[in-house]
């Protein structure tokens, strides 16, 4: 491994010169990351079904830029970065298939660019393997073509840490500075709070490590974070009563951020639950979660390899950023969603890949075939588990979204057509499918009052959705009720008059 070390990082850690020699442009250094990214894109298109409808959160984000339905209520924790990312397609087309293909291609390109940053910092086989490890997780494949921000935070984190290391290795590398700023902006554009957590070790090293104190690196990082978060901060003052009020609202919606060990919640969600809230199910079978326990062990081995090779910075920094990225979702929140840890997985992929390559390369010649066989069998088992979970997640998600589409069609049959308003159980995603506005009088998405809703129902087609167990709110109990599957659709006066007429 010593002969493949990156010279600039070794020199930087020894306190020596930081002028980096030119890295030879070898074809392989570009081809293998490109192959990984291309296979990742094709896997998304093959396994996540471009025709799969939009999920709950996706409907919120797409509705902000779509002409298909009015904009849904936008709660405090959300940021508009992902809405703007899909605007080139969603603003003029209602085709979910086209949107999925667009995001699959874009996510593959993003992965390639993020991996390319690490060229020269690690051998190409390590970089390509890291990309493959991250790109074959079921959660990565599922959320690559989804209108969700977490994958893009992960890409920004992976690229940003790599650009930071390149900028520290060569202070004349302006492309690295621009890349660091752009990566920080991408993260903050998508999820500002996550961007801060990921960036904490970078900021700390720029302030506390004497040989890393470079004003231009600090300025690039802060400028990127500020540029990405400025819209979210401005919206906080326009719509939420200030930055402090928006942060407080975001914390309340997420159950109150504070010391709360959610490690078991994340484990429970690994069986394929896209949202585990409340998270009361049993821990999945060992074969489904073994990889999760292997990650920290392999990452620790990667750090040992780096220390012995005297190139600690290249491994320690992504490990530190992965740790801070995972802290809020492992120890500060009362529920779990696998997508929250995508930045954690992306950053761990580099040291884990380095450890796996070392295990094979450092084994004795006589034992190498055995080691290679064991690693290959473990990888095959890992892939089988990941894609079995992915298939189940896609099937369940597709079924739920088809139910929403059928409910929307039934609403149209009952006279609830645009312009219209829906409220009640799962009203937000169903409203998007029906082309209606959604409104709630209570809960995290509260956007109107009971009196305003009753006034609206007299002049605009309105319906309240309820389950048989819960029943409708008091104001809708006198409205005509229609059973549709497990739902009860209570049609307001305006829509009911339309039906009778």
Question: How would you portray this structure in words?
Answer:
This protein is mainly alpha-helical and 501 residues long. The protein has two domains: 2-255, no CATH class; 397-500, no CATH class. It has 20 helices and five strands. It has helices spanning 7-14, 27-47, 56-63, 81-90, 96-117, 124-135, 138-143, 150-169, 174-190, 192-208, 215-239, 243-253, 263-269, 286-308, 312-331, 342-361, 368-413, 427-434, 450-459, 493-500; strands at 421-424, 437-438, 462-467, 481-484, 487-491. It has a five-stranded mixed β-sheet with strand order 2-1-3-5-4, with helices on both faces. A hairpin with a 2-residue loop joins strand 4 (481-484) and strand 5. Helix 14 runs antiparallel to helix 15 (312-331). The radius of gyration is 25 Å and the shape is globular. The termini are far apart. Mean pLDDT is 91; it is low at 1-8 and 10-24.
Concise summary:
By secondary structure, the chain is mainly alpha-helical. It is built from 20 helices and five strands. A hairpin with a 2-residue loop joins strand 4 (about 480-485) and strand 5 (about 485-490).
């Amino acid at each position: 491994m010593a002969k493949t070390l990156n010279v600039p990082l070794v020199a930087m850690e020894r306190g020596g010169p930081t002028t980096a020699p030119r890295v030879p442009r070898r074809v392989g250094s570009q081809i293998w990351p490109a192959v990984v990214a291309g296979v990742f894109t094709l896997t998304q298109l093959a396994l996540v079904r471009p025709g799969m409808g939009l999920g709950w959160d996706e409907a919120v984000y797409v509705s902000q830029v779509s002409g298909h339905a009015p904009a849904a209520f936008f709660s405090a924790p959300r940021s508009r970065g992902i809405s703007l990312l899909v605007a080139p397609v969603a603003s003029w087309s209602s085709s979910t298939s086209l949107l999925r293909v667009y995001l699959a291609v874009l996510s593959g390109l993003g992965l390639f660019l993020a991996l390319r940053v690490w060229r020269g910092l690690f051998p190409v086989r390590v970089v390509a393997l890291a990309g493959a490890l991250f790109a074959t997780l079921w959660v990565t494949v599922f959320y690559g073509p989804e209108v969700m921000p977490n994958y893009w935070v992960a890409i920004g984190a992976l690229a940003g840490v790599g650009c930071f290391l390149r900028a520290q290795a060569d202070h004349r590398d302006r492309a690295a500075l621009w890349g660091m700023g752009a990566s920080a902006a991408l993260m903050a554009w998508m999820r500002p709070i996550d961007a801060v957590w990921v960036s904490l070790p970078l900021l700390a090293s720029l302030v506390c490590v004497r040989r890393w104190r470079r004003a231009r690196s600090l300025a690039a990082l802060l400028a990127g974070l500020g540029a990405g978060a400025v819209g979210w901060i401005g919206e906080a003052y326009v719509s939420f009563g200030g930055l402090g009020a928006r942060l407080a609202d975001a914390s309340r919606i997420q159950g109150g951020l504070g010391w709360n060990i959610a490690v078991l919640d994340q484990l429970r969600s690994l069986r394929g639950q896209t949202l585990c809230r409340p998270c009361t199910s049993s821990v999945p079978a060992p074969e489904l979660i073994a990889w999760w326990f292997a990650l920290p062990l392999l990452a620790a081995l990667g750090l040992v390899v780096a220390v012995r090779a005297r190139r600690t910075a290249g491994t320690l920094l992504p490990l530190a950023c992965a740790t801070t990225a995972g802290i809020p979702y492992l120890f500060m929140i009362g529920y779990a969603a696998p997508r929250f840890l995508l930045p954690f997985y992306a950053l761990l992929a580099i040291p884990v890949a380095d450890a796996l390559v070392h295990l094979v390369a450092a084994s004795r010649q006589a034992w190498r075939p055995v080691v290679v066989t064991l690693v290959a069998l473990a990888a095959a088992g890992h892939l089988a588990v990941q894609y079995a979970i992915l298939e189940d997640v896609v099937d369940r998600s597709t079924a739920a979204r088809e139910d929403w589409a059928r409910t929307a069609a039934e609403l149209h049959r009952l006279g609830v057509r645009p312009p219209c308003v829906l409220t009640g159980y799962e009203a937000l995603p169903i409203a998007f499918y029906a082309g209606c506005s959604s409104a709630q009088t209570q809960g995290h998405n509260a956007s109107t009052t009971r009196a305003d809703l009753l006034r609206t129902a007299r002049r605009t087609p309105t319906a309240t959705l309820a389950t048989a167990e819960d029943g409708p709110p008091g104001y809708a109990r006198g409205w005509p009720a229609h059973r549709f599957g497990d739902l009860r659709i209570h049609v307001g006066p305006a829509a009911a008059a339309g039906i009778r007429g």
